[in-house]
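Subject: Protein entry, chain in single-letter code together with its fold tokens

Area: Proteins and the way their chains fold up in space.

Attached in line: The record itself begins immediately under this heading.
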Amino acid sequence: MSPRTQPRRRGLRIAVWSLVTVLVVAAGLVGVVLWQNSYEMDEQRVSIRHAGHTLNGVLAIPKDGRKHHGLVVYVHGDGPIDATHDDGYKPMWEANAKAGYAALSWDKPGVAGAPGNWLDQSMDDRADEAAAAIAWARARPDIDGDRIGLWGASQAGWVLPKVAAKAPVSFVIAVSPAINWLRQGRHNLLAELRADGATAARTKAAIANSDTTRRLLERHATFDEYVKAMRGDADGMTADRWGFISKNYTADATQDLRALRGIPVLLTLAGHDINVDTADTERSYRNVLDASGALTVERYPDATHSLLKRSIEQSDVKITFTALFSPRSLFADGFLDDQRQFLKDLGRGSNAIP
């Protein structure tokens, strides 16, 4: 063997073993991702007929061997959300499953191939949709019709009490729910301006634009009138979005919350919520529901509006890697456990309706 051949063979062996090492590590990482994104529940696609069209849903059933389960019906927040919220709901569904509850959710109209357009909906339309889903679930032999409740986030704050007024529900989990559309919008505007370190002049201009928008809504202005009033700068507003806001800007849950009296309610609030005024929300819920003795309030100081850990949500890289390798860790400490415990306590009667 020539002296030149030996280094070449050594180099080839090093390259081969390096490739093998990379492949083994990659396979290990893929295995971790698959394991971390596997949940203790069985998911099935379902179809629910409502108002002449079909809701494309997902039903997640606990793997506990039981043939009869309670059910948590999920009511989305704002935006084009699919049934699993891009898999973001699954850690919560698993928490439900550990407490013996199934979960039901569906694609918003116009999302993931579903018929319709969610921007055509009012809050009453959304409540009718959820009530139809409850009726569908109550007819299933694997669902306990006496243990069907609601989970809803953000914009769902206007929907949850409307559903409870239309259909019997045995509990509600309200996550960062809003109370008044216009107050929430102003809170969000000012909070974002503060977070951006906006100058006084910029803040004054933004408030002026907001006031103009409110006046346009009050006189039922068209989208073209809105664009003209904004001097041609729609700032992301579309005709469909303008129509959606026009339908819903008067939303206020204060009076509707009376439909939740006597029903066990878990209200979860974040410490860094720039979307919803959590003090206003807690005050409103306590004013209406505290006398019934069925309200539980949980606060998460480190959480953002979506109840994710603030340190994670502030970094796209952290969100991506955590979602891949430890999706349950996305949420604020205690958030998943508190929901599981709330549901378990319902079965023990500690939150039973008086």
